[in-house]
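quick one before i forget lol
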Amino acid sequence: MKSSKVTLVAKGKTAENAVVEGYLATINTASNLFKEVDFEFLNDYETINKINLGDIKNLIIPIQLHSNESVSNYTYKDVLKLTKVPIHTHKLFTQTMNLDSKYGNVCFGEVLSTYQIALSWLIMSGFRYFKIYGVGKDSGYHKEFEKNDDVGNYRDSNWYAWNYNLGVNILKKYDCDWEIL
């Protein structure tokens, strides 16, 4: 698996240019752009109702999910009631529950969004080769997400550069080969 390439797609402008090589990993509703997804990453409970779970092979979620960008009482057990898709869990730095997870806490300094969660989980799973689409230093989104108002409306314009750079730092820290397209 370490030599396998992962195409990671988020909701930014370049998502429409995604050419899948190797495994396909998607972030939040970016999964709706594809007929089949190997790894779907989400942290917010309400996102589950916005994606087609039938197209997803593996769902990666925190043990305790967020709701409306805040800590919630929803857990992976609530998601298990909604789908038969295999679920892999991790702990977020904001979790209030004291539960064990295979991957432990994802470090606060490395996490701003589901993008860093996806990179961290994939790297901890052994992947080191990435083609990344839909992540950029500006606030632009793929037209499908803009049409559906599925965008980060309340984010400071600097947030996108910070998000992008945190991802680059993770990729460099773990000596990955990567392209952000």
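fyi Strands lie at 5-9, 23-27, 39-41, 59-62, 64-67, 70-75, 87-90, 129-133, 177-180.
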